[in-house]
Design a protein that fits this description.
Layout lengths: L1 E7 L2 E6 L9 E10 L2 H7 L7 H10 L8 E9 L11 E4 L2 E2 L2 E2 L11 E5 L3 E3 L6 H5 L1 H14 L6 E5 L3 H13 L3 E6 L2 H9 L4 E4 L5 H8 L5 E6 L13 H9 E9 L11 H6 L3 E3 L6 H12 L12 E3 L4 H9 L1 H4 L6 E3 L8
Parallel strand pairs: 10-11, 10-13, 11-12, 13-14, 14-15, 16-17
Antiparallel strand pairs: 1-2, 3-4, 3-8, 3-17, 4-5, 5-9, 6-7
């Protein structure tokens, strides 16, 4: 089979490898669609971000099938003891489980075939496309963020940043019970899509102060919940900690701010704003099996729509480097979701 093998930072090669066999409790899958995450691309280029020490250790051990934790697949063989899946099932994956992180601690899905723990995967209903299935992993963080925020019908939730995570949080917050959802972004087409996907109001941060706009929309009270999805390295065109400062200043006293963006090991929190106004900062909840299955259910019944976010699917495993470039420069290419690669087609089963 063909698989992308990472030999060093910035050095990934498409090579022939022996197809893997599943050990007990694991399954072998044919990968259908995969997509790179921004974090994976930054790690591949040697930047310090989440998982840097793991990747550095793996590279010291020699070339390996690194990265590829966002994918959909079809089960082709079962290891001993597998009971919840069967051959022919289409599945989505969560990024990690007790045995480690996919593509970090063991080979990922930038290959024609892979082996993964049964507990990592959940069956995809027919209503969820292969492309949407590949985006489920990122969506699980959004559902876990909404779970942590626990918005209520009498509350206003604000989402800062309209990338894939922002759109996921927008829809998950609505599904979790937020009475009003406000989307903050900088691209007109993204703001229009936010309205189509359930936002009650949008704020164009390229032409107005988002803090003042949110304060005005809430009658001067501020937001009850803020999902911060825009921060990250300024060198990569992201907002640094500017949007975290905005999140604190547009929130009411004792509000909840949920951080989804990642700005390295030393992200700066505007401590005074949080401390003296008793604003609570939290990360998404720990992803349980129940939240993973709830994410699939939300995508299945249409309460969270993923397909409208997918703007580019490239045919062929060999086009992964192109997907990396498109994903790293999503704004320039007008993309919301990472660029995907179609590796194979599902086989119909009876």
């Amino acid at each position: 089979m063909k698989a992308w093998i990472t030999h060093g930072y910035g050095d990934m090669r498409l090579e022939e490898r022996d197809p893997p066999d599943p050990k007990p409790g694991w399954v072998k899958v044919k990968v259908l669609v995969a997509q790179p995450s921004i974090t994976e691309i930054l790690l591949f280029e040697g930047e310090r971000t989440y998982g840097h020490e793991i990747i550095a250790r793996r590279l010291r051990e020699g070339p390996g099938a690194l990265f590829g934790h966002e994918f959909s697949a079809q089960v082709v063989a079962l290891g001993e003891g597998v009971t919840t899946l069967k051959a022919g099932d289409r599945v989505a994956a969560r990024g990690s489980h007790p045995e480690g992180i996919v593509g970090f601690d063991y080979p990922g899905a930038f290959a024609e075939f892979g082996v993964f723990p049964e507990s990592l995967l959940a069956p995809l209903p027919p209503s969820v496309s292969d492309s949407a299935g590949a985006a489920i992993q990122a969506l699980t963080d959004c559902v876990a963020a909404a779970h942590a925020a626990a918005p209520r019908l009498d509350e206003t939730a604000v989402v800062i940043g309209l990338g894939a995570m922002g759109f996921g949080c927008l829809q998950a917050a609505r599904a979790a019970g937020a009475g009003r959802v406000v989307a903050v972004g900088r691209r007109r087409e993204a703001l229009d899509l936010a309205l189509a996907l359930g936002a009650d109001d949008v704020v164009d941060a390229s032409s107005e102060d988002p803090v003042e706009a949110v304060r005005k929309l809430t009658g001067g009270n501020g937001a009850d919940v803020v999902f911060e999805c825009a921060g990250g390295p300024v060198s990569r065109g992201l907002a640094g900690n500017t949007t975290m400062i905005q999140a604190a200043r547009m929130a009411r006293d004792e509000a909840r701010v949920i951080g989804l963006a990642f700005d390295g090991d030393a992200a700066v929190l505007p401590y005074a704003d949080f401390r003296f106004r008793s604003i609570r900062f939290a990360f998404p909840s720990v992803l349980t099996r129940a939240l993973f299955e709830r994410t699939v259910a939300l995508a299945s019944d249409g309460r969270v729509r993923v397909d409208p976010l997918i703007g580019c699917t490239l045919d062929g495993l060999e086009r992964l480097p192109e997907a990396f470039d498109l994903t790293l420069n999503k704004s320039r290419h007008g993309l919301i979701n990472p660029a995907q690669i179609r590796i194979s087609q599902a086989t119909e089963t009876t």
